[in-house]
Structure formats: structure tokens, C-alpha cells
Specification:
The structure is a single chain. By secondary structure, the chain is an alpha+beta fold. It is built from twelve helices and nine strands. Strand 7 and strand 8 form a beta hairpin. Helix 1 packs antiparallel against helix 5, helix 2 packs antiparallel against helix 5 and helix 5 runs antiparallel to helix 6. The two termini are 51 Å apart.
Length: 551
């Protein structure tokens, strides 16, 4: 249990799965951003200078300036020389030309402001509200408050591509992909627990085999001492002593190999549970006894029932089904995108004018505005949309094949696990029986050797058979323990909902952890709700309902 607890906190595969879920959530948030309300505001000021041609002016104000200057020049000339009235036409032309020259480099002020709020709905409709004040008076000079207010409300409607699938498929698919990533996280946690259990039983098996090798070495060492006593007593020939020495050396080598296997299995267990270098002292000692199964329960295993349970509960298969749903949405969107783009836009506006500022009276005047338009866009070849549809259909087919592969693997693994458990149980019974007989035989041979009725070779061979049988029994028990956990994993009954993940939250992502040893040492129990329970602090898949899928 210590190893599993540490693994559920620190296993690298779980940490990667959490980050994959965060990536999927980021993609979901990004896809939803397409339907955020948009607010824009523009305020611009420009000043330009004109050089109007003779007799022309850029603005009414300039025209008035030129006329005033021309009349002033005419009156001054007549006052100084009344006789010039006979050529009044030439005098006006001359004065007007002079006034035009004096109006060179006149300035023009431009002040513009616009405010816009738009919102695109998930079915494709777009609403837009615009407001634009007129900040220039009739003399093109900046004025405040504005003399005119333009208000406009418009709506755009995609006639051929109206619906959530056509316009919101990316967000809908991203939401499904995020939910699938949480399922994959659950599967990663379950797989990490399985790997930890199997690594633990391997370490336990290595320790048991080391104990057997150490016992065999101590027996061979005692046999060597006993053989020396027999040689000194002339009970056996001296040539038999080399056989005892060889057996002791072989046992010592076997014990060294067994110790190396302990180190290797310990390193594998540490890697599986995710221990860092400075945490190796926390490596749990694999001392627990191997689990066993009652004969009646093992005989009652039904592979068909377990297969149905597994297909309904497995997280990786559920994630694969989510993948199919997501790809089907995108395929449908690609198919709708093949249609021509036909859009309808309608708008209504109102201009509010300050009559007092325009010398048109008092109060405010209203000027309504209306607009209606239809847009059409369709490339005859349409290769871009055709290629997108082909790619989307291929992705859908791949997701279906992936799900079928997962399903076939589940069915095959359960069949193999059930048969393997039954064979291992029989193998354990046979191994334990052989150990009992070899133990009795070795005890008898030792006594006969002491009495001179048996040879040293017979005794050594009996000890080797006992060690081999005991080692086989340990291997079979370890394999049975691993196979129980594997069958639990295959039927998604390895971890219950007592294990709760709350993300993001590393390095301590587990919110609650309450597991029992029976979850890893007994046959599957389909009555328990599957776990772990995965949730997110910032987003809950069930919190926001998915939009209706209208094509």
C-alpha cells in the first residue's frame, strides 16, 4: 500500500497525463474564445492643409473667407479711386484672385469616433451594435457635445451554414477531447497502480528467491563441513569432498545472482513509483506474502461476464469512444462546409441630430436608416473544403480503428488472464506438493548419508531439486499475484472512487486516498464504482451543458 500511495502521488506517467489534460483544457478555452463578445472603440483626429486653385475652395468656410477678402479689397479700391467703378468686373476678378492667393495653406480638421459591440452566437448568428458621434460642426470645426449621434443595430445570418455543428464544432470537439483526456488520466492512474503492484510482487519474489538461495548456500556450506568430517572418518572417499566444494561455490554464485535480482527489482519498483534520488530511503520493503484464491471463486470466473464488465468500465475504451464522437463532429462540420456560403445581413439605424447646432430649429431631429444585403461565396473547384473533408473522414476512421483495437485487446487479455489464473493455481498446488515431498526426501537422505546408506551426490541432488521446486513455487505465486492485479486492471476494478484527483495540483494532486489491500489481491468486484474520480478546480465537464447539435 505504501508503494501504491507514493506512485499515485509521484508516478511520471500520471504527471504527464495531468499535463495532457491541461493542454486539452487550454485548447477548449481557446476554441470557446471565438464566441467571446468583442468591444472596439476608435477615436481619430487628423489635420491637413490645402492649397486650393483660383476660384475654388476646399470647404465652405474657405469660400466664405475668400468672398469676404474679395469684397473688402473691392471696397478699399473704390474708396481710394471712385473712377474704377467703370471696370468693376475686372476689379472683382483681381480682388478675388488676390483673396484666393491669401487663402493658401488653409487647414482642415477631421475628428472621427466610433464604438462597436459585437457578439457571435454558437449557431452562427452575429449581432452588432454601432455608435458614431459627429464631432464636427457645419464649419468643420471640432465641437462638443456632438451635433449628431448615429446608432445602428445589425444582424448577420448564415443561411446555408446555420447551426452549432457548422459554427461551434471546434469547441464542441475540444470539450469532448478534454473529457477524454480526463478519462485517459484515470486510465494512467490505474495503469500506474498496476505497474506498481506488479513491480512490488517482482521485488517480493526476488527477496523470496534470495532467501531460498541463501538457504541453499547455508545447506551446501553445512554439507561441505559434514563431508569433511566424513572424509576424516573414512566414511566417504576424499574425492567426494571436491563435489561438496563445487556445490558450495555454485550456491554462493547463485546467491550473488539472487541478490543482484533484488537490487534490480528494487530499482524497477523505485522507478515505477517515481522516487527521486533523494527519496530512495522511502522505497518500501517488499515483504508481504503473496495472495491466494479460493478454489470455488476461481472456478466461478466467467470470462464473458468479465468482458462485458471491462468493455463498460475501461477508461481507455471510454476515451476512445469520446475520440470517435469528437472526430464525427468535425467530419460533419467539414461536410457542411462544402455548402456555398450564403449570408443575409439586415440592419436598422437612427441618426439623432441636434437642430440647434445646425440652425434648423430647436430640439432633436430623428433620421431612420435601414439596410438589407445578401452575400454569396462559392469556389467552383472547392479543393480546400474537399481536402478538409477527406482528412476529417480519415481521422474518424482512425479513431474507430483505435477503439476496435482497444476493445479486441481487452477481450483477448481477459481470456488469457482467466486461463492463466487457473493454470497458475494448479501450478502452485503442484509446486507446493513437490516441495513437501522433496523436503521429506532430503531429510531422509541426510539421515541415510549419516548412516552411510546414501551417497553425497544423492543428497546434493535432492537439495537442488528442493531449491528448484521452492523457486518454482515462488515464481508461480508471484505470477498469480501479478495476474490478479492485471485482471483487476483489465476490468477497471483495480482502483475505486476513494482515490480522487483534483487538477491542477502537482506536486500533490491526490485530493483523497483510501485504498485497501483487497483491491489488489482479490478477484474483480464489479459492484464497486470505478475510480479514480477525476475533477478540475477550474473546469468541470458536467458544469456547462454542451450546445444542441443542430446541423
Amino acid at each position: 500500500m505504501d508503494a501504491i500511495r507514493i506512485a499515485l502521488y509521484q508516478n511520471s506517467d500520471i504527471r504527464l497525463a495531468v499535463e495532457d489534460a491541461q493542454l486539452a483544457k487550454g485548447a477548449l478555452v481557446k476554441a470557446g474564445g471565438n464566441f467571446d463578445s468583442k468591444i472596439s472603440a476608435v477615436v481619430a483626429y487628423a489635420k491637413s492643409f490645402t492649397n486650393p486653385a483660383e476660384g475654388q475652395a476646399a470647404t465652405p468656410d474657405q469660400v466664405r473667407q475668400i468672398v469676404n477678402q474679395s469684397l473688402s479689397g473691392v471696397f478699399k479700391t473704390l474708396a481710394a479711386n471712385p473712377g474704377a467703378a467703370g471696370n468693376i468686373s475686372g476689379l472683382i476678378d483681381q480682388s478675388t484672385s488676390s483673396a484666393a492667393k491669401n487663402s493658401i495653406a488653409k487647414s482642415i480638421d477631421v475628428l472621427f469616433a466610433s464604438f462597436d459591440v459585437s457578439k457571435e452566437l454558437r449557431n452562427g448568428m452575429t449581432f452588432d451594435v454601432e455608435y458614431g458621434p459627429d464631432l464636427l460642426d457645419e464649419n468643420d470645426k471640432p465641437t462638443w457635445p456632438p451635433i449628431k449621434h448615429d446608432l445602428k443595430v445589425s444582424v448577420s445570418l448564415p443561411l446555408t451554414k446555420l447551426g452549432t455543428i457548422a459554427n461551434d464544432a471546434d469547441e464542441m470537439a475540444a470539450r469532448i477531447d478534454y473529457e477524454a483526456s480526463l478519462l485517459n488520466l484515470s486510465h494512467a492512474a490505474t495503469k500506474a497502480a498496476l505497474d506498481t503492484v506488479q513491480a512490488y510482487w517482482k521485488a517480493s519474489s526476488a527477496l523470496e528467491k534470495f532467501y531460498l538461495s541463501d538457504r541453499a548456500f547455508r545447506v551446501s556450506d553445512a554439507m561441505l563441513s559434514f563431508s569433511r568430517e566424513l572424509v576424516r572418518a573414512d566414511a566417504i572417499p576424499a574425492s567426494d569432498l571436491s563435489l561438496s566444494e563445487a556445490k558450495r561455490a555454485e550456491a554462493l554464485s547463485s546467491r550473488s545472482n539472487a541478490l543482484l535480482a533484488v537490487f534490480t527489482s528494487g530499482a524497477e519498483l523505485a522507478t515505477t513509483i517515481g522516487l527521486r534520488t533523494d527519496q530512495l530511503k522511502k522505497l518500501p520493503l517488499a515483504y508481504e506474502t503473496f495472495p491466494s484464491i479460493a478454489k470455488g471463486k476461481l472456478a466461478g470466473l466467467n470470462s464473458e461476464v468479465l468482458t462485458d464488465v471491462a468493455l463498460a468500465r475501461r477508461f481507455d475504451r471510454a476515451a476512445a469512444l469520446k475520440g470517435i464522437e469528437s472526430k464525427r463532429l468535425l467530419t460533419e462540420k467539414a461536410r457542411i462546409d462544402m455548402r456555398p456560403d450564403l449570408k443575409l445581413k439586415a440592419g436598422v439605424g437612427l441618426a439623432i441630430i441636434d437642430n440647434s447646432a445646425t440652425n434648423s430649429g430647436s430640439g432633436y431631429g430623428l433620421q431612420p436608416e435601414f439596410e438589407l444585403g445578401v452575400g454569396f461565396n462559392y469556389p467552383p473547384a472547392n479543393h480546400t473544403k474537399k481536402g478538409a473533408l477527406i482528412s476529417a473522414q480519415a481521422d474518424l476512421d482512425k479513431s474507430v480503428l483505435s477503439m476496435e483495437t482497444v476493445s479486441r485487446s481487452i477481450v483477448a487479455d481477459i481470456l488469457v488472464s482467466v486461463d492463466t489464473l487457473k493454470e497458475l493455481d494448479q501450478q502452485i498446488s503442484d509446486s507446493e506438493l513437490s516441495v513437501n515431498y522433496y523436503t521429506k526426501s532430503l531429510s531422509d537422505l541426510r539421515e541415510r548419508l549419516r548412516l552411510g546408506a546414501a551417497t553425497l551426490l544423492d543428497t546434493i541432488q535432492a537439495e537442488e531439486r528442493l531449491t528448484s521446486a521452492a523457486t518454482s513455487a515462488v515464481s508461480a505465486k508471484a505470477s498469480l499475484a501479478e495476474e490478479i492485479a492485471k485482471l483487476r486492471f483489465e476490468t477497471a476494478t483495480l482502483i475505486s472512487r476513494d482515490v480522487a484527483y483534483r487538477i491542477p495540483g502537482f506536486p500533490k494532486p491526490v485530493e483523497s486516498l483510501k485504498i485497501s489491500r483487497t483491491s489488489f489481491t482479490s478477484l474483480p468486484d464489479a459492484t464497486e464504482q470505478r475510480g479514480p474520480l477525476i475533477s478540475d478546480r477550474n473546469y468541470e465537464p458536467g458544469h456547462r451543458s454542451s450546445p444542441r447539435r443542430n446541423p
